[in-house]
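Exercise 7b. Backbone tokens:
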């Protein structure tokens, strides 16, 4: 049985991919916390309805990652992918060297990402367990 044919697993996979990409962006923000002129970035939140629609229609079109300023460091972020990187714009939070990274906020995002990824992982494991039980192969 191919689990990728089930909508739940397609949506869970997309959510986990988004969380992994967001963790890369947050990590890059933290790594550039002392880089003069660096503006913190984040991924655009995914729309559940749109994700579900694409999963149901098997439409796999993706949006390329956009750099909002050529001075931003590219690091290990992919040149293309289904998620768009956005610069966070809050000029009142910049330091004297024009760095816009708030360490506390980025650490909160990293912790939130971890919790959401663990939740998605647990949901996938529970659904696999339910499928195994339904097939008579045990739930563990």
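Sequence design result:
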């Amino acid at each position: 049985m191919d689990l990728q044919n089930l909508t739940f697993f397609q949506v869970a996979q997309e959510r986990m991919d988004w969380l992994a990409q967001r963790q890369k962006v947050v990590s890059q923000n933290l790594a550039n916390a002392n880089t003069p002129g660096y503006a913190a970035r984040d991924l655009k939140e995914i729309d559940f309805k749109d994700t579900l629609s694409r999963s149901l229609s098997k439409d796999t079109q993706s949006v390329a990652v956009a750099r909002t300023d050529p001075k931003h460091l590219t690091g290990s972020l992919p040149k293309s992918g289904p998620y768009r990187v956005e610069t966070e714009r809050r000029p009142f939070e910049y330091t004297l060297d024009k760095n816009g990274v708030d360490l506390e906020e980025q650490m909160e995002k990293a912790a939130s990402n971890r919790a959401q990824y663990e939740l998605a992982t647990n949901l996938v494991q529970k659904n696999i367990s339910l499928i195994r039980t339904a097939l008579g192969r045990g739930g563990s």
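Instructor comment: The beta strands are 41-43, 85-87. The longest strand covers residues 41-43.
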